[in-house]
Design goal:
alpha+beta; two-stranded antiparallel sheet; two-stranded antiparallel ribbon; 5 helices; 4 strands; 23% strand; globular
């Protein structure tokens, strides 16, 4: 039996624990992540309406947030441009990031452009939800 199959079987044996947070040693939190997800520390939460119009933004307590993830985004490092599907750093999700003083390493590869391109493909796919379409409507206004 291959090690990948062993990992799969172990995951399946603990499927009831997916997404549940448990505190372990030194009061650290752990969770068995759903497939194609990771965690990031969220700093800002933006609320939009059904037409993609901005409603509110607020600073949130620095906490670990479960987000969808692609293989490419999971392995990004350095100057590699690989957006997460929905939630990401300001350089990816803010169309006016550079205008307001944000710095990017390579002016030929703007992270926002990759993010909006991927979000558009998702929003126009049969797998899109109403929420994804609303977020895309908001994001494309800055493109």
């Amino acid at each position: 039996m291959s090690w990948l199959y062993q990992l799969y079987k172990t995951y399946e044996l603990h499927i009831d624990q997916v997404g549940k947070v448990a505190k372990k040693q030194w009061d650290r939190e752990y969770s068995l992540l759903p497939i194609s997800h990771t965690t990031q520390n969220a700093h800002i939460e933006v609320t939009v309406d059904e037409e993609g119009d901005f409603l509110d933004a607020k600073i949130v307590n620095k906490e670990s947030t479960l987000i969808p993830c692609t293989e490419e985004a999971a392995s990004r490092s350095g100057s590699k441009i690989a957006p997460y599907p929905l939630h990401d750093k300001l350089s990816y999700v803010a169309g006016d990031f550079i205008k307001y003083g944000g710095k990017i390493k390579n002016q030929d590869q703007i992270p926002f452009n990759s993010y909006v391109h991927n979000l558009k493909a998702w929003a126009q796919s049969p797998f899109a939800t109403k929420k994804v379409r609303c977020i895309y409507e908001y994001i494309k206004k800055a493109h």
